[in-house]
Amino acid sequence: MVKVADVVDKLNARVICGECDLNQEVQFGFASDLMSDVLTIDTENLLLITGLNNLQTIRTSEMSDISFILFVRDKKVSEEMKQLACENEMTLIECGHSMFRACSALNDIGLKPVY
Amino acid sequence: MEFKFGIEGGNFSKAGSASSEVKKILKQLNVNPKIIKRTVVSLYEAEVNVVAHAFEGNMNVEIDPEKIVVKIEDKGPGIPDINQAMQEGYSTATPQVREMGFGAGMGLPNIKRNSDQMNISSTVDVGTQVEIINYLS
């Protein structure tokens, strides 16, 4: 289990919304820009790592019960995305690393792959 | 209990709003979270399909103590070969749909995976109907 706050520290990331949930823990990470893939995952307690920054990223996470999303490659969260994420009590984080680097760093601190 | 939601073809900023409303209703009814997730994932896939391929559509939801029955009907180009469309990886999605993170040819198979019963029928140049049934126990 990895604290969301440790994810933020490790990646020198910015918390966009959901700051009060930083003490929560996540067990698994799943990295994809393809929301169709994300919708096939039925693992709970998941951090989604993605470079896809549009409303469907938030909608997909809402349907999949994913509460934590890390945006890589310096992709910015729009105001609309932030609003929808807040309505669904999600935590959004942005970082400037590539997806590969972010995944590698998070694996180092104990985040597990789904498969 | 019956609910009806409209779906706008081509409007990706609203895609998922009908499924989101259904999720709120199922949560209020204290449905098992695993059943909620299976149901709303299949509804969302179907809703995205309407937005991606059709001109307009509707989502009709009926909930009784035993099951959730959802019919998603659209006016659109229809599906010429349903067996082909059900194959994982087959897609006719536009580049715009792919930019939104979809169009990998996984939608219909994922609806099937997440529903207890799935019925689909389609008429070319008229539209498509998908029925999703999930049992509550």
TrEMBL record, chain A:
Source species, domain of life: Bacteria
Pfam family, one: DRTGG
Span of the signal peptide: none
Domain DRTGG: start-end pairs: 6-108
Stated name of the protein: DRTGG domain-containing protein
InterPro entries the UniProt entry points to: DRTGG (IPR010766), Ser_kin/Pase_Hpr-like_N_sf (IPR028979)
Quaternary context: Homohexamer.
From TrEMBL, chain B:
Pfam families according to UniProt: HATPase_c_2 (PF13581)
InterPro entries found in the cross-reference section: HATPase_C_sf, HATPase_dom
Occurrences of domain Histidine kinase/HSP90-like ATPase (ranges): 18-132
Domain of life: Bacteria
Signal peptide: none
Name of this chain's protein: Anti-sigma regulatory factor
Organism listed in the record: Marinifilum caeruleilacunae
